[in-house]
Amino acid sequence: MAGLSFRVPSGGPTPVLVATVIRGPGAATPVATIQVGDAIAAPRPDGLVLSTLAGHELRLAAGTRAHFTAPDRLWLETGRVYFDSATPGRFEIDSRYGAVSHVGTRYALELRATELIVRVRDGLVAVETQAAHVRVPRGTQVTFDARGREQSRGAISTWGPAWSWVDALAPPLRLDGRPLVDVLEEIARESGRQLEFADDRVREACRHIDLKGPLLELPIGDRLYAVLATTGFEAVESGDRILIRGQATD
After folding, report:
1. DSSP assignment, residue 163?
2. What is the pTM of this model?
3. How do 73-84 and 92-95 pair as beta strands?
4. 79 with 183, same domain?
5. What are phi and psi for residue 185, nearest 5 degrees?
6. Which end of the chain is less packed: N or C, by CB atoms within 10 Å?
7. Residue 3 belongs to a domain
8. How far apart are CA 46 and CA 3, in angstroms?
9. Are residues 152 and 195 in the same domain?
10. Residue 151 lies inside a defined structural domain of this protein
11. Do both 116 and 226 map to the same domain?
């Protein structure tokens, strides 16, 4: 595969399969497998998506280099990686600065020459370096220096430009046979926002509408209105919240 490199030891212990690769935005089927120790180089310009056997998802920005040291541990050499804990279970991302593990969350790491940046989109992560052992909550960005010391901490939006490379690697949206409420929850989750309904009547109505159609491969920002176009509902977006309500003409 162009853009991916693998380093598989000859002889020694039996290779351990750890993940499959879904390459680039829009791809829906695994195109390669990854074993512990394989070197991964995310291709340009799109990057790639890894799905671990435990059900976790990792999105690697173009140019990112990494490898698994165990089924539940990824070593990040350089670049950016986004982690989405689709299932329970421990997973750790290590780098020369230290280790980052999740407590049910979605977060991004950016490894630079002299600093590590942790951005938490949802939930909570634990960061352990030689100089710090801290927890980082949703909507927070923390930067660590080359010695692992916390350099800065501040609020960050859970949606928008900072996450554009992550959103570009989102899988297509499956519609056929799914209740509208499930699809709306996935759209909100993928875009880093909170979903709300005007009232229980609207929520229940969305629960009883089953969608039909092929995979939706639109950009994240266009999916909400494409899905709602024929449903009789409308969305009101405000910051990190999406409110679903009946159309004004109803």
Report:
1. G
2. 0.86
3. parallel
4. no
5. -65, -40
6. C
7. no
8. 10
9. no
10. yes
11. no
Distance CA 96, CA 72 (A): 17
Nearest residue to 96 via CA among 114, 84, 80, 82: 114
Give me the domain span that covers residue 230.
172-246
Tell me, what amino acid is at 204? E
In this structure, are 105 and 198 located in the same domain? no
Give the Cα separation of 230 and 181 in Å (integer).
14
The number of domains in the chain is 2
Q: 140 with 177, same domain?
A: no
Backbone Cα Rg of the chain: 19
For residues 90 and 149, state if they share a domain. yes
pLDDT of the chain, 250 residues: tens digit per residue = 334 444 444 445 678 899 998 865 545 556 688 999 999 999 888 899 999 998 899 999 999 999 999 999 999 999 999 999 867 778 999 999 999 998 778 999 999 999 999 999 999 999 999 998 999 999 999 999 999 999 999 999 999 999 999 999 998 999 989 999 999 999 999 999 999 999 999 999 999 999 999 999 999 999 999 999 989 999 999 989 999 998 754 4
Kindly provide the residue ranges of all beta strands, DSSP E only, lying in 30-145, ordered along the sequence: 32-35, 39-41, 48-52, 57-60, 65-70, 73-84, 92-95, 98-102, 106-111, 115-122, 124-129, 133-137, 140-145
Q: Residue 52: count other Cβ atoms within 10 Å of its Cβ.
A: 20
